[in-house]
Amino acid sequence: MPPVNSEKPGVDRRGFLKRAGLVSAAAAGVPLAATAPAEALDLNLDLDLGIDLSRLFGRDRYQWLVGDHHIHTQYSYDAMYTVDGIADDARRHGADWAVITDHGHASHEKSSVERTNAAIRAAQREHRDLLLWQGMEWNVPGAEHATLFFQAGANQSAKLREFERAFDWRLTGTEPGTPDNEALAVKAIRWLAAEERARRIHAPVVVINHPLRNGRIAPHEIRALRDAAPGIVIGMEGAPGAQADGFPKPLGSGGGARGGYGNSPGSNSWPGFPESAYRTYGGFDWSTATVGGLWDSLLAEGKPWWITSNSDSHYNRGDTLVRPGVPDGYYDEHGAYPDPIDTGVPQTLPPYADFAPAEFSRTVVGVTRRSHEGVLEGLRAGRVWVVHGGLAQELEFGAYSGWSSATMGGRLRVRRGDDVTVVVSAKLASRPNGGGAIPRLARLDLVSGPMTGPAADRDAQTAPGTRVVRSFEPRWAPGRRVAFRHTFRNVREPFFVRTRGTDGKKHVPGGIEPSADVIGQSNPFEDLWLYGNPIFVDVR
């Protein structure tokens, strides 16, 4: 772990900015902290933070687009929305991009793929400011679920169908976690890579969905899928959808869990996960929320592994739409359900466990151009941060040493003995979220750990030496921009650094880590977090 030595209190503020290359004209309200929260320094910087900060954060290169990569429609065996209705909801809640990911299923492959494609093309014509994809929720052989999407132009449906027929466990009978089934999943990823090389598809992206909900994808499976085609299997849902399932329910209606994480190990679960892995923590998967846990063990290898968040929309809490009654076997015969009916009555009981796209969970991607290609490239590059309940409007994260810099998903290359400074900036929320209040960002943390190379144990799920190296408590005012910095002095070994934030309402007793969500008693708006993807620091 590189030494952690921050600037001392009383450092000359303008001198620091000159050394960092971040000098700008004076203007409004950005606290910049060089030390622990009690020693935060208030500086008045220009609203645009100066040309060099713009370069550090990539403001001259990236625009940040809100999206959702895990959404279901009437073409899923367990959902009801029309594609056009999803597009309406996505835009209403501020989404710039969305991926339709109906479940792999024999009836879906037989009857739904082309119809979904036609509905998406029609919705795209009506919603030209929304980037829409046709993807699928892949039943991964030997595991559970993953989002898959790519571009294939006029051949989109044909290529999705070809993949589904050959590699979905519902169609191939390959659900159990056997070595042969795990090998088929790797073969599927290699097929995607071969199709991309042959230019039959463009920029495929695979994200492991709700990874620890049922404990059915082992660490060695994650590593095998990631390593089979770097750049295609880009990461996992750091937080699952179905966050509204945690709301307290009326007596007798059953208790739900955020993300559906109210389970215990089953016959297909990997036995190496502890019982605690089957719960969410501040709405986030155990693998993400645990400092020095599974996510950090993957980052410690120095290989990309990004996190996302999404709605997993099937039935959205508070919606007045209901699915019409149909005879048994209707979906199996038709591959779709009839359009939903508006009752005018808000629905809150199961199965209404989801939020609409971008209503609560947001995946924010830094793109070089507002296009399908731009979003795919940004996701693959890891320029991604995720947020619940509008906890912050913007998050910026960069690291620099000398004239070199990197932002989320990037690599900073330095010489041994150099200093590395990390800067985090957030724009605080200024409008009420779905819970009726303006959320308050109470704390930002920097998490860092050593990069130790490929794991000798492919089932490793810990990263020793990873810890929270600095926390910052911004003074809160709606819409204010806040920032802080931290310097790693005289770095000797490679490391990674990432950021997270919280509303500070729930922690483990006596600590700052997120606490386990209580089944049936977890209002998601009362425990909000955000996470940024890491920066890798290579030392030569």
Write up what this structure looks like.
The protein has 540 residues and is of the alpha+beta class. The chain has a domain at 13-62 and 393-539. It is 21% helix and 26% strand. It is built from 13 helices and 25 strands. The protein has helices spanning 13-20, 50-57, 83-92, 106-111, 113-126, 156-167, 169-172, 179-197, 219-228, 286-289, 294-299, 330-334, 372-381, and strands at 30-33, 41-43, 63-71, 97-100, 131-134, 136-139, 145-151, 202-208, 233-237, 280-281, 284-285, 306-308, 321-322, 341-342, 361-367, 384-388, 392-401, 404-407, 411-414, 420-428, 443-450, 467-472, 481-488, 495-502, 529-539. Strands 3, 4, 5, 15, 16, 19, 21, 22, 24 and 25 form a ten-stranded mixed beta sheet that branches. A six-stranded mixed beta sheet has the order 2-1-23-20-17-18, covered by helices on one side. Helix 8 packs parallel to helix 9. The radius of gyration is 23 Å and the shape is globular. Residues 1-51 have low confidence and may be disordered. Residues 252-263 have a biased composition (Gly residues). This is Polymerase/histidinol phosphatase N-terminal domain-containing protein. It comes from Amycolatopsis decaplanina DSM 44594. InterPro entries: PHP_domain (IPR052018), Pol/His_phosphatase_N (IPR003141), Pol/histidinol_Pase-like (IPR016195), TAT_signal (IPR006311). Residues 67-142 form the Polymerase/histidinol phosphatase N-terminal domain.
